[in-house]
Amino acid sequence: MKSLKGTETAVTIKAPWGNLTALTWGEPTSPPVLLCPGRMEPCTAFRPLVLSLPAKFFYVAIDLPGNGWSDPLPLGVRFTVLDLVPSVLTVVEHFKWETFVYIGHSLGAAVGKFFNIAYPGRVTRVVELDPLPAYFTSKTISLKEWYHMYYGNYYKKDSYIKHNAGTETAPRYSYEKIKELVQKVQGLTEEALKHQLERMIEPAGDGLYRFTYDQRMKNVTLLPFPSDLLKKIYTESKTPTFAILANDMVQLGAYKDVPFLTDETAWPNENFKFKIVPGGHDVHLNDPGCMAEDISKFLLEDVKSKL
């Protein structure tokens, strides 16, 4: 069998606001698969999963603006999930893809949802990896509370300066402290940490390091759709979709306000399926083996349907 090992290539793609960076695996002539990460997550976090998937595809994992090595969106204003959709279009147009498969983790899944709505027919299949932000609803939050959560403090002087300062002002830490901070939030294995940190930090002098992500990526604005409206919008899609949910998040009730997500009969086009796997929000990075076979089968169905 062909292997993707040894095919990894770093690429830079020009965007109107700067550069988008990405990693690719496989042959560019193979059917394309675009992978979009979550907030503050670099493209390298997809490496373990991609290397477990079929080699007959061309995989492109991107760094969203302000993540990894990609340039941030223009500083100043707070941006929403919709402002990240043009990044996907920029990559698609760069590679001149007519259609492609989309894999998104967390915030990346939400970006893919809106791309698929804005550009119907371009995405042939969708894989959602613990897509929490894609299913954010206003069921338990008022519009007033939503506004103050995202915008209330952002434009106050200290907060504004913090969110728009360059990396030069970022705190410096030892490498071990960096690992401890990320481990505390994400609960990654030692191997997973290496992939996560590869494009997440940079040397800051005196043997210390600093995080390089855009501070605004900590809390990208999500739209306050009521659950019923979200259901209507999402279930209208005819794109075959496979959602993989982390059991830890399910047990915490993260999806309790969107019961249609775990009810395949709620999707009238019969194009949706889901699977719950053991692990936390970053299980795709910590344990790609628990989902690689299922994702592979789902991807290969796209190839078979075109034969």
TrEMBL record:
InterPro entries recorded: AB_hydrolase_1, AB_hydrolase_fold, AB_hydrolase_sf
Q: Report whether Coiled coil shows up as a keyword of the record.
A: no
Which terms does the record give in the GO molecular function aspect?
Answer: hydrolase activity
GO cellular-component term (any): membrane
Please name the SUPFAM superfamilies in this protein's record. Answer: alpha/beta-Hydrolases
Q: Matching Gene3D superfamilies, A to Z?
A: alpha/beta hydrolase
Domain AB hydrolase-1 as annotated: residue spans? 31-287
The cross-references to PANTHER family, in alphabetical order and at most eight, read:
MONOACYLGLYCEROL LIPASE, SERINE HYDROLASE-LIKE PROTEIN DDB_G0286239
- What's the family? Belongs to the AB hydrolase superfamily.
Q: What is this protein called?
A: AB hydrolase-1 domain-containing protein
